[in-house]
Specification:
Rossmann fold, four-stranded parallel β-sheet, 302 residues, six-stranded mixed β-sheet, alpha/beta
């Protein structure tokens, strides 16, 4: 899955932190970041007119990318959206690309009874894509990130990437060259069951291999989606230096790296951070980020 649009930015911050940032967010204008590698292996061989269905929140990068991908491939798409009906830039885009949106209560969303939902809403033989898009096809797709031209000839000690549903990290683990340590940063506020999820995906894709090159850490002890004044100020400061981040995933990884740098835990290491995209979600968050950034009291760490 080669793409010519990915490249690496050499980031050098005033506090001395330097690292490479792989710009998967530039892979495609609308299927950006890791979604290109997760969704295309799931959709590219489906007959036109097939019905695909999945789950997501009102600002979901996955729903956004799935709707556009289906539109471009001649597929019918259905998104089961968590919570009460609402309009967001993400969902408005999905609607405009032909996705049928069905809002379900949080209890149903947690249990995700796919057959019951298919029967209730009369979906004809839907092909279910997991929330976040993480399955074995996605893992194999994400493994090809290492094959991108921008990474050829590069050597790293550590790779940092945000983790939501686990597929991107699992793919990077399976495709990683020897000597690279992969650190997945949970965006959920805790490790939750992410270690189990990633391990299960690795077992499904490579049942006869053992991987000891990865670990999951907690990027920030805040619930999923929560933006604090410190995070907001970090976002604004990064933006002023030309580093554009999404507030849910990549901002947390960036913040974590800064803290590691302050603790002098990155000295002498060649670092790669994966920009997994998600910038479309900024449209609904920008005003809140600006407000929270103004509430932050304290020195910027970089």
């Amino acid at each position: 899955m080669q793409t010519t649009n990915t490249f690496i930015d050499d980031i050098e911050l005033p506090n001395g932190l330097s690292f490479d940032l792989m710009r998967l967010d530039q892979t495609d204008s609308l299927i950006s970041g890791n979604k290109w590698f997760k969704l295309l292996p799931n959709l590219s061989d489906l007959p036109k007119g097939s019905c695909i269905a999945s789950f997501g929140g009102p600002h979901s990068n996955h729903i956004h990318a799935l709707a556009w991908s289906a539109n471009q491939m001649g597929l019918n798409s259905v998104g089961f959206i968590r919570g009460e009906p609402k309009s967001t830039p993400t969902l408005d885009d999905a609607l405009s690309w032909g996705m049928k949106l069905i809002f379900i209560d949080r209890e149903t969303y947690r249990s995700k009874p796919t057959q019951q939902l298919a029967d209730k809403y009369q979906l004809a033989s839907p092909i279910w894509i997991p929330e976040g898009g993480s399955n074995t096809n996605a893992v194999r797709g994400c493994a090809t990130i290492w094959q991108q031209e921008a990474l050829q000839g590069q050597n790293y000690d550590e790779l940092y990437v945000a983790v939501g549903s686990g597929g991107t990290l699992a793919g990077l683990v399976t495709g990683a060259p020897e000597g690279v340590r992969l650190i997945g940063l949970s965006a959920l506020g805790s490790k939750a069951d992410l270690e189990e999820r990633v391990s299960d995906l690795l077992e499904q894709v490579s049942p006869n291999r053992e991987f000891d090159n990865w670990v999951i850490e907690v990027a920030l002890g805040q619930r999923y989606g929560k933006v604090t004044p410190e995070l907001a100020a970090t976002h604004k400061r990064a933006e002023s230096l030309g580093v554009e981040l999404d507030p849910i995933y990549t901002l947390r990884v960036f913040h974590y790296l800064i803290r590691k740098q302050l603790a002098r835990e990155l000295e002498g290491k060649r670092i790669l951070m994966i920009h997994t995209g998600g910038l479309q979600g900024l449209r609904a968050q920008q005003e809140r980020i600006n407000r929270l950034a103004n509430e932050f009291v304290g020195p910027h760490p970089f």
